[in-house]
Design goal:
Length: about 200
């Protein structure tokens, strides 16, 4: 399974959101504290920023509650902040919320909800969400089985993942999907992937 580090997801959310939040100073200080393992300081800085509406802080606080870093683990509270961040358009939060629905973590397992949140994150260019969405299309879980759609999302994920084993595995899966498609279907998927562009302002 492809995974992204907590730090990488949080920092990616900050970059994606930009530097416009009025709570930006607390956000930066909180993320720096998180990075060095000072979770008490991280929470002290990030909680007010999250309450003030900073989506990246909401996502960071959600991660802390869900993992029990610096605070007592509280799945319900973590899910609350995760939903806020995901609704605000934080791609990594949308991906994680999709994963919660796919695997039944803190919520009832629901593949259609997983596909919904994965699609939002995939549209924003989160490669692991593109990969997971591709798998759902391959297996017809939460969405109608669609090899063209699967190929598109796997192709995009493979193009956006850093070089290494996960990227190679996704590319190999894409090729195995292509082996079960017609030439015109593969061409259709390739054109769609080439013309794809991320959406959203966060």
């Amino acid at each position: 399974m492809i995974q992204l580090t907590t730090r990488g997801l949080i920092l990616g959310a900050v970059i994606a959101i930009g530097l416009t939040s009025p709570a930006f100073a607390g956000l930066v200080d909180g993320l720096a504290a998180y990075d060095r393992g000072d979770y008490a300081t991280a929470y002290r800085e990030l909680a007010p920023a999250a309450a003030g509406g900073a989506p990246a802080a909401q996502y960071a606080v959600a991660r802390m509650y869900l993992s029990g870093e610096g605070i007592s683990r509280d799945g319900a509270e973590g899910l609350k902040w995760l939903l806020k961040a995901a609704t605000a358009g934080v791609g990594p939060a949308q991906y994680q919320l999709g994963a919660c629905h796919e695997w039944g973590i803190e919520v009832a397992q629901d593949y259609s909800q997983a596909a919904r949140w994965y699609r939002m994150a995939a549209d924003r260019g989160v490669p692991v969400a593109q990969y997971r969405l591709g798998l759902l299309y391959i297996n017809g879980m939460g969405v109608a089985r669609d090899l063209v759609a699967a190929h598109i999302w796997l192709n995009l994920a493979a193009s956006r993942l850093p070089p290494g084993e996960p990227r190679n595995a996704v590319a190999q899966l894409r090729e195995s999907v292509a082996a079960n498609m017609t030439a015109s279907q593969v061409a259709e998927a390739q054109v769609a992937a080439r013309n794809w562009a991320p959406t959203g302002d966060r």
